Amino acid sequence: MSTSNGLFGLILIGFATTTLAVFKDCGSKEATVTKVLCNGQDSGPCQLKKGTDASLEIDFTSKTSQSQLTSVVHGILSGVPVPFSPTDTNACNGIVEKCPIAPNNNYSFKTSLPVKSIYPSLRLVVRWEIQDPSSTDVICIELPAEIVS
Ligand SMILES: *[C@@H]1O[C@H](CO)[C@@H](O)[C@H](O)[C@H]1NC(C)=O
């Protein structure tokens, strides 16, 4: 009984890993996120290769007008959020169509994530928030990731 349960568990884990949706919305209040790409991929954990810059793209439809947007980034390790300083906290600089953003329009936010060689190899969740000046999450996404050599 326990053997078959264990096997079933393994199969479930395998299934969950291969069909993992790349992002989870963690409370976007002023936008609808339509797509998240890590290194151009929209499935599987985001591969953060040491010594390289990973690319991140977040496509969204805005619900509000905003002219000032700030990126707040955390790496969540075993459930504990650790602040991460992005190269540029001004999220407007990553919006391809430029700020201000307006309701019911689609935008693409593109940025890169420097992966330092000294980082340990581990799995984590990257939480990327884009906030308005009142610190409300316009966007909040969580992305399963793994730091690899
Ligand atoms: C915005 O993107 C959504 C989803 O991809 C699409 O259905 C919609 O037509 C787009 N709207 C505009 C204004 O381009």
Automatic annotation (TrEMBL):
SUPFAM superfamilies: E set domains
Subcellular location as annotated: Secreted
GO annotation (BP), single: intracellular cholesterol transport
Signal peptide, first to last residue: 1-21
Pfam families: E1_DerP2_DerF2
Family annotation (InterPro entries): Ig_E-set, ML_dom, ML_Npc2-like, NPC2-like
One Gene Ontology term, aspect cellular component: extracellular region
UniProt family annotation: Belongs to the NPC2 family.
Name of the protein in its database record: MD-2-related lipid-recognition domain-containing protein
